[in-house]
Hints:
Layout: H1 13-17, H2 22-32, H3 44-54, E1 61-65, H4 71-80, E2 83-88, H5 91-103, E3 110-114, E4 128-134, H6 143-153, E5 154-168, H7 174-180, E6 189-190, H8 193-200, E7 203-210, H9 212-228, H10 230-257, E8 261-270
Parallel strand pairs: 1-2, 1-4, 2-3, 4-5, 5-6
Antiparallel strand pairs: 5-8, 7-8
Amino acid sequence: MSAHKEPSNQGYDAVYQEFDSPLQRDLRREAYGKDIGQHSWVTAEELEQDIARLQIPSTSRVLDLGCGPAGPLTFIVAQTNCHGTGVDFSVPAVVSGQARAKSQALETRIALQQADLNDPLPFATNSFDAVISLDVILHLCDRAKVFQEVARVLAPEGRFLFTDAGVIAGPISSGQIRHRALHGYTQFAPAGFNERVLEQAGFRVLETADRTPSLLKNATGRLTARLAHQQELEQLEGKEGLESQQQYLETIINLAQKRALLRMMYLAKKV
């Protein structure tokens, strides 16, 4: 990685190393209602709607930027029978995702690799019909360059759908920013910024949607589930780690309730 760039996030590695443990599976079921191997704020119901938005036939090639352990990508491939490619900076995430794909007999349709999304994407021009990135864009250093790379690897008229849980709509304190950025580098953006940068990168914005209510529901569910398993989590994370995660979720809930920090969905088409 070049010296001029801020360091890539490694704060999720510990989570991904334990991602498929019985405890983590219980937490996901209790927090989201349905465990699809997600760690972001996405739910199965939300993803089903987004599959329709992306217009993915079985012949499609789908790229997931910041795929984590590939839960949502595996869900999409299983639903549509398309070919999926996932990229994540975390090696434990890629290893976990490969095991997930194999467990569902999808290893021939899903390819995962480790890469830094702050670098140019390691794919040829026009390689994909659709690109997704779920709650990852806010962790990247220069989204303008990322969007340009997405436009490059997308086929003509390909679709790009991403969610950003860092859209500023109200006052946020320095302490709240610190707690919200628990997992590493986090870039908050004002309302309207993503739309403008997408258009500059060669996209036409088709749809935006405010998904802050679902974030609030999921964050509350995650906090409630973690409190129910507090003793087990303290053994795993330590007292300080447990408290940090609680402050993280409490901050997200507070900011969502006040609508100071929004989670937005953007659907765009390469022009």
